[in-house]
Amino acid sequence: MSKLELLPINIAGEWRLGAGDESHSLYPATGEVVGRLRAPSLADVDEAIRKADQAFRHSGWAQKKPHERAAVLQRVAQLIRERAEPLAQLQRLDNGKPISETRALVASAAGTFQFFAAACETMEETLTPPRGDCMTMSVYEPMGVVAAITPWNSPIASEAQKMAPALAAGNAVVVKPAEATPLLALELARICEQAGVPKGIISVLPGRGSVIGDAITQHPLVKRVSFTGGTSTGKHIARIAADKMMPVSLELGGKSATMVLEDADLDHAVNGVLYGIFSSSGESCIAGSRLFVARKLYGDFMERLTAKAAALRVGDPADERTQMGPLISAKHRESIESYVQLGLSEGGQLRTGGQRPEGALYEHGYYYRPTILEGLKNQDQICQQEIFGPVLVAMPFDDEAALLEQANDSVYALAAGIWTRDYKAAWRIGRAVQAGTVWINTYKQFSISTPFGGWRDSGLGREKGRLGIQQYMEQKSLYWGL
Ligand code: NAD
């Protein structure tokens, strides 16, 4: 048993041990315990939400002028930047991403708070054209207690994307981080408190989704849920929301197509496709996991891609040179292994990977080799189901019509990538492919000012962008008789 002390959780600004089950955060590279805490009990959850509702009504946060809330959020951004390195190291321990990636996620969290500080000050409350005998104005009001439910793959960035706009809008926020990665959400809550967010406005309630997440979603005082996670969980939350007539935003799974056209810059495309699937060990909703390559290029392209995938440096997340770290857990690795078996049983052949790396470094961590399968059809299960790991399925295509038909043949529609020098083809395919985000000659690039979200089973609603704040507000129209 680890000697680490139990960490307090945040129940409406009170830092104390939860009264629920004990859970451990494991470092995926070694399996060591890096955090111990006790989840909240259902009574703790109820207490946190009731106190959050009181804080929303009485702490003065909702009544602050936008520039006053903006100043607090600017301080959050500044404190994140001042503590960037310890936060990045903590995130490496919590979820096993290489340090180069966790640094980028911490920087993005700071940028998110800064962006929504500005968005809060520049929200447009519009005067609509007068009718002659009355004047009307559209304004936005905060909702009350809103919930942010996040997955384990990008902690701190996921939480920041929900907390920053929800706080900017004047709400109280109850955060439910993934059971495997609670540490960064707790740190972020401490930073918000130090920056001046009033007590009670933030709670962090880690624990099992089916217990704690469900209790939060069902609670009558929770007025909105912003969820990022798997599609089946998202649908479950949407059903509860329908009964409560509660708005939700759902950022869900993906099975994104990357398309390499005949005239693509080969080196650029190979590197982009490689990064699109294997960065973050493929544990990314936008991972480019289905690859379509023009048949004429297929042989040459796959040779280069396979050689580079096999040479990726898989290893210690603390090493600056590491390109791919371990997977989040032993259980998740088993799930990925069973998907690879499924692909093989459907007639797929391995180009590379399909096994755990060998050697002392990998003995205790949840490592898996970058894996590429081919010889499959887009209708096969392995091409339709989200694997959420470092597994790419490659297929040749013959013409644009066939390419689009296959790329769009998926229940998911989160992202897509196009590699070509032909800007007209990029425009045509970019418009015809069904996805919330399409990258052209790049992949996995983000701007906080650009809305992000999915179509179909990939989700409902959009995060980021100037309008991201509005999903945490209710709109109201005021009429003045003249
Ligand atoms: P998950 O759905 O299992 O869990 C996500 C969060 O929901 C966790 O905090 C979990 O505890 C909670 N949860 C689980 N059951 C719940 C319930 N019944 N009620 C309320 N909350 C519940 O997903 P995961 O395995 O943590 O994450 C992987 C999934 O997330 C993948 O499908 C991935 O594509 C998706 N994802 C999507 C985006 C996006 O922006 N679209 C980003 C990252 C991850």
TrEMBL record:
List of catalytic residues: E251
The UniProt family comment states: Belongs to the aldehyde dehydrogenase family.
Which reaction equations make up its catalytic activity? Answer: 4-(hydroxymethyl)benzenesulfonate + NAD(+) = 4-formylbenzenesulfonate + NADH + H(+)
Report the protein's function: Involved in the toluene-4-sulfonate degradation pathway. Does not discriminate between the sulfonate and the carboxyl substituents and can also be involved in the p-toluenecarboxylate degradation pathway.
Instruction: Identify the InterPro entries for this entry.
Output: Ald_DH/histidinol_DH (IPR016161), Ald_DH_C (IPR016163), Ald_DH_CS_CYS (IPR016160), Ald_DH_CS_GLU (IPR029510), Ald_DH_N (IPR016162), Aldehyde_DH_dom (IPR015590)
UniProt name for this protein = 4-(hydroxymethyl)benzenesulfonate dehydrogenase
Which EC class heads this enzyme's classification?
oxidoreductase
The top of its lineage is: Bacteria, Pseudomonadati, Pseudomonadota, Betaproteobacteria, Burkholderiales
| Record-linked Pfam families | Aldedh
Instruction: Quote the SUPFAM superfamilies the UniProt record gives.
Output: ALDH-like
Q: How does it assemble?
A: Homodimer.
Q: Where is the Aldehyde dehydrogenase domain?
A: 19-477
Q: Which UniProt keywords apply?
A: Oxidoreductase
What would you give as a GO molecular function for this chain, any one?
A: oxidoreductase activity, acting on the aldehyde or oxo group of donors, NAD or NADP as acceptor
Listed Gene3D superfamilies: Aldehyde Dehydrogenase, Chain A, domain 1, Aldehyde Dehydrogenase, Chain A, domain 2
In short, the EC number is 1.1.1.257
